[in-house]
Amino acid sequence: MLPEEYRAVGGSSFADFLASRAPDMLPGARYNGTTELEGVTHGTTIVAATFDGGVVMAGDRRATMGNVIAQRDIQKVFPTDEYSCVGIAGTAGIAVEMTRLFQVELEHYEKIEGATLSTDGKANRLAALIRGNLGMAMQGLAVVPLFAGYDLDAGVGRIFAFDVTGNKNEERTFHSVGSGSTFARGSLKKLYRAGMSEADAVTAVVQALYDAADDDTATGGPDLARRIFPLVSVITADGYRAWTEEQTAAVADQVISARMHAPDGPHAPLT
Amino acid sequence: MTAPFYVSPEQLMKDRADFARKGISRGRSVVVVQYADGILLVAENPSKALHKISEIYDHIGFAAVGRYNEFENLRIAGIRLADVRGYSYDRRDVTGRSLANAYAQTLGTIFSSGAEKPYEVELFVAEVGHAPEDDQVYRLTYDGSVADVQGYGVMGGQNELVETYLGEHYAAGLDLAGALRLAASALGADSTPARTVTAESLEVAVLDRTRSQPRKFKRLGDARVAEALQG
């Protein structure tokens, strides 16, 4: 039997439905303590860059728990629908749950309305979910995702960054979040060019992650012994696509071999 | 003061069933056909905005005839049920059988309760499996009864005529274009002489097990349908 609430007239938001029907299932609804938790897994660095005809997002593979490496091959970039993806930094448990909720949110809207949300609509929904987590963020369990999507109406890739209060910033070129983001952004600043090809943009983000790992202890560099390299996702007019491990390994190998001669990476012209 | 009339339960149920059946037979039919790569859902529906066919979950599709507001209500409830279940457990734990059960219970309760009028709807819940023998199609009627559909099914409109046509022409293992042509001519067989049903008047969707995405439901546009009907 379908419960009465399921047949009630309502909106097309899954998160709102869950909030009224089963609020305890929402991310961040469970922890009510006031002390900071220990032994929490954190995701580290995510980078994204637009290119001619789309957007690329990549993340390193490390998750940390204090000074310990919690996982060496974590996935931090997830497709959220056919034309968007989310990269997560911060408290992994809440971030992964929020991403799952966001995935269902987009799909739920699409099925009920028979139409997909606009890219801005998706970003605003994600901002609302992040804002819902503010209480947890104030206890040290912050989630800071990076959102990227291909805007079918405008025909361009777009990147949105958020803070813990759900403030939304659109970045037209490149952006990075997480513990190594300062170094990754500095690196991308020198490597990014307008109108890059997909392959060049992927090389640029892999370089940026290398630089982040070079200076941030929590960001994982390329693991040559285990052959663990960044995960790269690309969104174009054809939809979401993840680069295969062989493809990213080839780019990573190229970057690493160049760093053998120039450990600080490629030089940008002075003027 | 007027004395209440005594109505026997048999008569009450019969009246309610007649009422529901009358509403359901008013519109055009909806056809479901199993083909080699999945399940085809076809409705005669000139509207591009008000759908009779919908996606419920990864492997599950929905088709309905009858009163729009009533089946839309059930469709949304089904999507909510599936999404809540998939979110709390895993995507693989959402099954067509549990959804068909929930619909059956709901329709049955509404039908036999004295207060509400019965829903004037019939539904198909289709679930595509990894192989043709894993495909499941359930037909739910206004009174909450469930039937397992094998190969093809029809509901609404002049469903006997359409069903007879399908029975005479259906063969297992059809390709998509073949299944679509069969469905279109079956829908046209609801009058004598038979009508020609054009691509523009059809709402078509498939649950295609060969799709690489986890979501197997896909709508086919007019151009794609016209092409298949010509071939």
Would you give an account of this structure?
The complex is a heterodimer of chains A (271) and B (231). Chain A is globular. The longest helix of chain A has 22 residues, at 92-113. In chain A, helix 6 packs antiparallel against helix 7 and helix 7 packs across helix 8. Chain A contains eight helices and 14 strands. Chain A is α+β, with helices and mostly antiparallel strands. Chain B has helices at residues 9-25, 68-88, 96-112, 159-169, 176-188, 222-230, and strands at 30-35, 38-44, 53-57, 60-66, 121-127, 136-140, 146-148, 152-155, 202-208, 217-220. In chain B, the strands form two sheets. In chain B, strands 8-1-2-9-10 form a five-stranded antiparallel sheet. A five-stranded antiparallel sheet of chain B has the order 3-4-5-6-7. The mean pLDDT of chain B is 93. The interface between A and B is medium-sized, with 19 and 25 residues.
Topology:
The complex is a heterodimer of chains A (271) and B (231).
Chain A: H1 4-7, H2 14-21, E1 42-43, E2 46-51, E3 54-59, E4 63-65, E5 68-71, E6 77-81, E7 84-87, E8 90-91, H3 92-113, H4 119-132, H5 134-137, E9 146-151, E10 156-162, E11 168-171, E12 174-177, H6 181-191, H7 198-215, E13 231-236, E14 239-242, H8 245-261
Helix pairs in contact in A: 3-4, 6-7, 7-8
Chain B: H1 9-25, E1 30-35, E2 38-44, E3 53-57, E4 60-66, H2 68-88, H3 96-112, E5 121-127, E6 136-140, E7 146-148, E8 152-155, H4 159-169, H5 176-188, E9 202-208, E10 217-220, H6 222-230
Antiparallel strand pairs in B: 1-2, 1-8, 2-9, 3-4, 4-5, 5-6, 6-7, 9-10
Helix pairs in contact in B: 4-5, 5-6
Q: What are the key terms here?
A:
heterodimer, A: 271 residues, alpha+beta, five-stranded antiparallel sheet, 36% helix, 23% strand, B: 231 residues, 6 helices, 10 strands
